[in-house]
Input
Amino acid sequence: MPKNLSLFGAYLQGISKRLQRSYKKTQITRIIPPKAFGGTPSAGSQMALWGGDDYNTYTRKRWSGAYTRKRLTPTQYRKDFQSDALNTTVYNLRVTGSALYSMDDSGGFDDYILRTPPEELRSATGEKMREVMYFYMRNPEVKSWGLPWKVFLRKRNRKDPAYARYAHEAKKEASGRATAAQHANFSPYYLPTHALLHPARQEFVEGSVQPRLNLWWREGPALEAAFRRRLGEAKSFERAHADHREPMGFRYGQTMGGGGRNNTTPRLRTKQHHYRALRPF
Output
């Protein structure tokens, strides 16, 4: 039995076939917000702020006598919120129109998180944000660090904020090094392998003036160190334009042909499949 005893008759959702036989033809059950009839919040709403919106269904009886049950997905948007209580910007938070209107009524994002009761908030993410806000109120020096709010999402991190900050900074630095190593093959200062470093070229005519190389980076150790550091850097947009025409370039798993052993695939192929069509050259 639903929590709200007045929602009977045309308001019944997901009722039995015997009760649906009394529906008129082309009748549609009235769509009630899940919060109104005490519906349990869905798992998809816990990592977002949906307010009173959630997945919903309605039943329709067509003229042929067939019953159709349709599922409705709430319209949601990805928004960035500047939070003073969290001292950071919450990026890509999924919200619905109901939550945005509730924020306007509450006076802003922070007031909506702090003052909305859990049965109205209906979001695990909102509850965690509220805990971090109260933690920042008790520890203003930790709030002044300006770290992402998810650093203090867990209770163990709030017990030892200094170690949580150290772990966050260490992971951030390790991620930067891993990304630089991953993109090193696509650096704008790309150098080919040693085997491909000397392409076929025409020899100089005897007696001609030999051009001299401009080794400008050897002028000083600081300039050489800076140049070598720049060689190791890479641009992320170079990934999309990797040179697949480089001989044997498809074997490294970063270009058109993918990586791994040649002519092996988990996908079932027919006898007429041409593996040569997958080659980048």
